[in-house]
Specification:
The chain is of the alpha/beta class. The protein is about 25% helix and about 20% strand. The chain has 10 helices and 13 strands. Strands 2-1-3-4-6-5-7 form a 7-stranded mixed beta sheet, sandwiched between helices. The longest helix has 12 residues, at about 135-145. The model is unreliable at about 1-5, about 230-255 and about 290-328 (pLDDT under 50).
């Protein structure tokens, strides 16, 4: 996406399915000269968080109510789209376009031919499995018919030195006459980030990419989880060493219960989903693996607690946790 970088006018960006603002945060971190002119999400809690993070409240409503005239008013250069993943996830029914949760994304795509001012760029993100769905076929067909050229990727953060092993699907689309730095990979699905870095050498064979040796090598090159955590949020700047382990498996310190409660997973969730939680330490090189259900937890415990938990399950109770959420 280099063509507009030298221009004085910032990109006008629309962010669909904005959630709490992950796409917008990435856009800011990339230092691209861009302005998000509108975001769209139906979830009021996500919009509360987005507003807190960025000082802007997304349009809250059903995206399917939007029409071409509505979108033309924004005169957007780029669209960011992270549509619902449930129709494509490997742990779901994989109903694709027959799933009602896919309909809003398809509706947006079908508006592209009707636009007087279509975007020059699209960026789509989803789970692995989307690339084999009929929704993906609809996406590619509509983009090709409307003069877009794509480069598609399935990439893992491990390939960028980050301790997170969850692969994701990405589609970059540019409207002609815009082009890519490495055009020989146009309209292909790639599994290495080389073309994004301007590399022209041939991509790795699928067998090599699936080998344990390749991923072990990437894993060893990663920084540990600890390097990416803001530990000082615990107890207003106090180190984790101020916490000790007690029989009821809750972390105690000289901070108040009210200050600590924000870091606890409720007992009801531990009881219901505990057998599917992943326990890692700060020195771990990754913090994700497929597990029994659809939840992950990054628990930062004292070494003693990790030793206690090894081979056993944690009794019901509140557990200190940094982050947890659904796995697609």
């Amino acid at each position: 996406m280099m063509e507009l970088e030298g221009s004085r006018k910032p990109w006008r960006v629309l962010e669909f399915y904005s959630g709490i603002g992950g796409m917008r945060y990435s856009l800011l971190k990339s230092a691209v000269n861009a302005t998000v002119v509108e975001a769209f999400d139906i979830n009021d809690v996500a919009n509360d968080v987005y507003q807190h993070n960025f000082g802007h409240r997304p349009f809250q409503g059903n995206i399917q109510t939007l029409n071409a005239t509505d979108l033309d008013r924004y005169n957007a250069d780029a669209w960011l789209l992270s549509p619902p993943c449930q129709p494509y996830t490997r742990q779901g029914l994989q109903k694709g376009s027959s799933d009602a949760r896919a309909s809003s994304f398809i509706k947006i795509l079908e508006l592209i031919p009707q636009l007087l001012q279509p975007p020059s760029y699209l960026f789509v993100e989803n789970v692995v499995g989307f690339e084999t769905s009929d929704t993906h076929e609809i996406l590619v067909e509509i983009l090709e018919k409307n003069n877009f050229v794509t480069q598609e990727f399935i990439l893992s953060p491990l390939q960028f030195g980050l301790p997170y092993s969850r692969p994701r699907y990405y589609c970059l689309a540019k409207r002609k006459p815009l082009s890519y730095e490495v055009p020989e990979f146009n309209n292909q699905l790639l599994r290495t980030p080389g073309p994004l870095l301007g590399q022209t050498e041939s991509t790795m064979e699928k067998e090599q990419l699936q080998s344990a040796e390749y991923w072990d090598e990437l894993l060893q090159a990663c920084q540990p989880v600890d390097d990416f955590l803001v530990l000082k949020t615990f107890g207003k700047g106090k180190d984790l060493s101020t916490y000790s382990v007690h029989a009821n498996d809750s972390a105690k310190s000289d901070t108040s219960d009210e200050e600590n409660n924000v870091y606890f997973v409720p007992s009801s969730l531990v009881e219901r989903w505990g057998s599917a939680m992943v326990i890692v330490g700060g020195a771990s090189l990754k913090y994700y693996r497929y597990c029994l259900s659809s939840f992950k937890a990054l628990l930062l415990f004292y070494k003693k607690l990790l030793q206690i938990c090894e081979g056993y399950w944690i009794p019901a109770g509140n557990c200190p946790v940094i982050s947890w959420g659904t796995i697609s």
